[in-house]
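Hi U.,

Before I forget, here's the chain from the pilot set. I'm dumping it here mostly so it's searchable later in email.
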Amino acid sequence: MKTLYLDCFAGIAGDMFIGALLNLVPNMNILTEGIRKLTALNPEEYELIIERTTKNGIAGINFDVHLKHEHHHKHEGPHHEHDEHEHGQEHHHHHHRHLADIEAMITASELPSRVKVASLRAFSLLAEAEANVHGTTPDKIHFHEVGAVDSIIDIVGSFILVDALGWPRVLCSSINVGSGTVECAHGILPVPAPATEKLLHGLPVYSAGTPMERTTPTGALLVKVLADGFSSIPAGKILASGYGLGNRESPDMPNMLRVMLIDAGNEYESDGLIHERITLLECNIDDMNPQDYEPVIGKLFLRGGLDVWTENIAMKKARPGVKLCCLCKGEASQKLSRIILEHTTSQGVRLKEFDRVRLNWRIEEADTSLGKIRVKTTDLGGEELRRIPEYEDVKEIAQKHDIPMYEARRMILREL
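Structure:
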């Protein structure tokens, strides 16, 4: 499994993300050719600046959008998007667009469908965040800088490059948001600025380094849309890496984003078996109605739990209790722990990491005289071991034909 890891030790911004990914794609023209598919953008309005350079002795790529009719416009590293907070102000340098205008522009383009879907979701989330900040609705938000050429390129261009990488799984470190204040149309406000802070809800953040805005609205937005989970660098083989450079100077922490393309994630195949690293979440509960476990277990499975079960235990003073257990990939442990804490009476969750060896398996659909049914097929070293019909399908077929479960299963196994 290919994984794109975002190391946000110094924050993240749209231009830094694009600069970093340009190190990984085979041809930088992928970006310029992709942006041209946004035919509603006039190529005479802008110029894409892609520069290989160094910052603090580290080589990387600095990406910028030069608006040809604005002699003084320049991205300013991770806080070039200060203007994204200037909704409700009158500007003369950019077109004013509503969410519907941007959606129409993206929908009418010849971009790949997955790029369109991600871009539309991103702008919708951004409009919701801005509307929340300003106490209005997304359709009433006037996108000044957010809807301007440079910001559209930052957001759509990011998904163009992720598409070029084949939409790998995306994992992210905790996000350095910076500190201090930022100047915007509403005055001097603390970092993270209002829209950024709204977009960061639910994401792991911290503050480090010289005071400055290190994560911008676009940066937070990209993590919100792309990240499948948050973790330290996952196990695997590094295939490629690169730095996206910002334009700010920081004496103690380079203004840059590091990305790594990693192969295999946390699993590999040996002797026909899958070897992987998994996390066990568990907690002890003695004050919860037994009927309330079922919906929690359902949520855990839905959000990435590999297996979920309960165990009867004896707690202090010999009180009967239940141990709730959930196996998951490491990157899913945070969100699944949150589900346990929100939907049970537990006050804490224990996390343990284990190595696991398992068979390779796949789900296939088979035709039987009783109807179509999903079958789990396991193999070892390429040789099929067994085929087991899915329980829910057997149950549905038994009900449909009004026969016992064991009889439905016997008939299906005979035909597999």
